[in-house]
Amino acid sequence: MLMRKDKLKADDIVGMLGNGTTFEGVLKFSGTVRIDGVFTGEVDADGVVIIGDTAKVNAQIHADTIIIHGEMHGEVHADKSLQLKAGGKLFGNVKTSSLVIENGVIFDGHCQMVREERRPLSAVEPLPQVSGNS
Prior knowledge:
The protein has one helix at about 1-5, and strands at about 15, 20-35, 40-50, 55-70, 70-75, 75-85, 90, 95, 100, 105-110, 110-115. With about 130 residues, it is mainly beta. Strands 1, 2, 3, 4, 5, 6, 7, 8, 9, 10 and 11 form an eleven-stranded parallel β-sheet that branches. The chain is globular and about 45 Å long. The relative contact order is 0.14. Mean pLDDT is about 85; it is low at about 1-5.
């Protein structure tokens, strides 16, 4: 199972976009989310974002830790660490305090090394309440 490579258990993952699925929008979460499908948009995470082998992502991502196995286009800000795994592709700019690049990675962009930051997850607007008296 791929999660062992990333030292994660199935219980650690709070969400997943599976292979063959497509999503466009904004993801805000705490915990770990794995993307194996096609994602376009923005990610704001207090946790870990894993971009799987089959993923094609075009987004702005801000998370504690970002692990890229697949293809990523866009801006990446990893407060704790960014890991580019063998076979991964990153086309875009990076801001992180720790960068690991394995052999076989394609990285086309700029990297800015910064001190590790702790930041609060931006507030998520509540959904409108639905009245039962319709």
